[in-house]
Amino acid sequence: MLKRLDKIRFRGQKRDEFLDLAESPNASDSECNDDLLMKPRVSLKDAEELRDPAGPGSITMAAAIQDYQRTESDRLNEVKGHLEIALLEKHFLQEELRKLREETNVETLKQELEKERLKRVDLEQKMNEILKTRLEDSPPPPPKAHGPTVNGTGEKQKESWSSKLWKWLYERFGVYIEDFRFQPEENTVETEEPLSAKRLTENMRRLKRGAKPVTNFMRNLSALSSWHSVYTSAIAFIIYMNAVWHGWAIPMFLFLAILRLSLNYLIAKGWRIQWSIVPEVSEPMEPPKEDLTVSEKFQLVLDVAQKAQNLFGKMSDVLEKIKNLFMWVQPEITQKLYIGLWMAFIASCLLPYKLLGFIIGLYAGIKFFIIDFIFKSCPKLRDKYDTPYIIWKSLPTDPQLKERNSATLSRRQIQPVVARGSLAAGVPSGIGREEESGRAYSTKRGPFHEVFNLSENERPLPVCENGWRCCLINRDRKMPTDYIRNGILYVTENYLCFESSSSRSTSSKKNKVIKLQDITDIQKYKVLSVLPGSGMGISIATPSTQKPLVFGAMIHRDEAFDAIFSQYAKIIGSTPSITDANSET
């Protein structure tokens, strides 16, 4: 560092040629002023003396003076630069010196701590040695002169023998005793990983690979039951029934498990063994792309989300059906299970286990190989006589129960009104049945005309009394809560009404009412294939919106489109053109 500083100091002209630096704004009064020899500035008189004696108008002398002054300013700038560099180097050297001092202090502290630790270890060793020498060099017992002394020495010997015994036991079995010491359980909190499209797809692939052996096993069982290979199924049926007849069903299953593990061991060692009734179809593995565009990432996340949604939906259906079976949600179904369990309990108490196992095994073989094959080949027989299949299909899930409860509540509300309408049919009030039923109709949030601020004559058409579930996509809005809203779509004689599921019964700000007469264009539209109903929807353009409103994710899109278009054509009086738009947003 000092060599670099010397090079910076003596770079350029000699010190004798340096000029006065008093006017430099970057130079301080205490640094570098004493080391430099100051050269007096050239005054006006000296400049006049240097001029050409021939006269004041000499051009050559003036040019020489200007060049001299220019070189002088360049030298001053160069000296200023050298001084600034020297000051910076000084600052850096001071910082490095301070760091070196701090490091030396840390090193001394570490050395002192190491010395103290060594001292402590030496003291512990000395203490242990002193205690061992005291135990080994204990004084011999005194001579047996009196009775009391004999008893005291006997007690001491017993204590020494007992301490040695406990010490020996602890040395031999202390490690095992420590394992049975009760300790509080540690609550470890697992860190959750952030959402990542790459991680999500990798987890889905791992789930698919992990479930592949289970799916292959179930596929082979189904093929064996449906007699996919007649010879294989016949041999399996004969072997199984022979094992059940001689009481070897359990040993047979254990032997099959051992055989399967043995084959897996050979496959793991590199043997090519295929033991499957149905040939396995190897799906081509696409190499993961590293650089994906935003649209590709979005589509990838949508595909994975669709698969996860369908998988979780199936799992939820199975778990909810099992829960509803045991919770007496359908009493007539659970009653059959209850009676069957009582009969099995009584049979297990009265019949010997060998006979009971023979009956169960015989029934399972006939059911698996013969009855299931007949039911799979004849679906009508299965729908009538396959009791487990009928029970499983008739078990409801939680969403189905909610729909049933809402339907029963709506029926209870409509029935008294219909009865009053039938009683007052002969009254000449001038009100038709349609108007009366329109007054009685109500949505989940209240009367229909109050929810949408319409007249009492407006009511949904018969084709959409319960409405069509969909999502309204308003592309004129920027906020996510206003851009897309879930709800139900109705069509009346003069209006198209959308009831938002997030709106309150006393507020209709989020509901949408469109007059059919104001519609300028109506089209079939496709939003995204991953949405319910394969993304099918209806696009409706009005003068009040810049972009058409899209009612997407409609399961019964064609039915809704036909109803809306037919009513729209009645009002307009002329049939406009129908167009299908399959563009994706």
How would you describe what is shown here?
The chain is α+β, with helices and mostly antiparallel strands and 585 residues long. It contains 17 helices and 10 strands. The strands form 2 sheets. It has an 8-stranded mixed beta sheet. Strands 1-2 form a two-stranded antiparallel ribbon. The model is unreliable at 10-54, 142-150, 417-440, 503-507 and 575-585 (pLDDT under 50).
Short description:
The protein has helices at 2-9, 44-49, 59-136, 147-179, 197-225, 230-245, 249-268, 294-326, 331-350, 353-377, 379-385, 387-394, 398-423, 433-440, 448-451, 480-483, 557-572; strands spanning 442-443, 446-447, 468-473, 484-491, 495-500, 512-515, 521-526, 536-541, 549-552, 580-581.
How many beta-strand elements? 10
The dominant shape is: flat
End-to-end separation: 66 Å
Report the major sheet: 8 strands, mixed
Radius of gyration, CA atoms, in whole angstroms: 49 Å
Run of helices and strands: HHHHHHHHHHHHHHEEHEHEEEEEEHE
Q: Give the helix proportion (percent range).
A: 55-70%
Strand order of the largest sheet: 6-5-4-3-9-8-7-10
Q: Which runs of at least 5 residues are low in confidence (pLDDT < 50)? A: 10-54, 142-150, 417-440, 503-507, 575-585
**Structural class of the helix and strand makeup?**
alpha+beta
Mean pLDDT: 75
Strand coverage percent? 5-15%
Alpha plus pi helix count:
17
